[in-house]
Amino acid sequence: NLLEKLKRGLRKTKESVEFGIVFRGRKVDEELFEELEELLVKADIGVKTAVALVEDLRRIALRKNIKTSEELKEVTKEKVKELLKGCEGTLNIPEDKKPAVILFLGVNGSGKTTTIGKLAYKFTSEGKKVMLVAADTFRAAAIEQLEVWAKRSGADITKKHEGADPAAVVYEGVERAIKEGHDITLIDTAGRLHTKEPLINELRKVKKVIQKLLPEEPTETLLVLDATIGQNSIQQAKVFKEAVDISGIVVTKLDGSAKGGAVIAICRELKIPIKLIGVGESIEDLQQFSTEEYVEALFD
Ligand code: GDP
Predict the structure, then answer these.
(1) Where does the SRP54-type proteins GTP-binding domain lie (predicted)?
(2) Per the annotation, does 300 bind a ligand?
């Protein structure tokens, strides 16, 4: 199952294996606290958060007279769950909204196209009619890749030639989805961060075009972040946040990241709920983010 997959992924990383060791058969002393802090920093939860968390654990251990690492592990899990309060979000797609529009943002390589493909598959499997819109017109490969996912998932696609105006593709795609009765429209956008101003303007224009046709859309604006880059993703996110409001985050590649702890930093810094996580490259490797499962996978 998916929890197992997430666990396996997080375990692949040196850090999470060591979490296991720190919490097994050890007595609770200063050496253990220091090791734990180091591991939390390595797992990229953020230095300040790691230091504060371990300080908190020291105090609790003293007050509650915690002697074994196993007991401490349970307290750590509870504390991390507290840190993640408000971080869990679910995709909000009201049944009566047709077509619901989901706008995807993220830098190239973050896993945006793959996520769109997986989500398209999930919706088509539920019997929904899905439209994909290839608004990353900057790279021919991006358009081709989205086409592959459209075929795989049984979704329709609206695309134009490489270099076409993204807003024009979006207009056409959304217009088609309205006319042809699609339930859901998933829009892929470009993510070239090194051209910050043009990117911001392009995303704003895309949003405006959607709202010209459907004033209440997009239902969701999801930012896709790659877990393997850890805390760096926070800087990326800030640029996208400048352009448009983000309703949720998708964290991809959690199956192979040594920086799985970054999820904690991402959500706490950005104050945006995590709605989906990617745990592999195949079509079913997308799941809802659950704080409970995440914490179990991280420390077990
Ligand atoms: P885009 O440029 O943002 O559209 O990124 P892509 O969707 O093309 O993904 C970039 C690479 O990351 C591809 O090789 C994907 O197969 C891979 N990828 C995407 N999501 C995941 C994931 O959850 N886990 C793993 N292991 N790989 C992923």
Answers:
(1) 273-286
(2) no
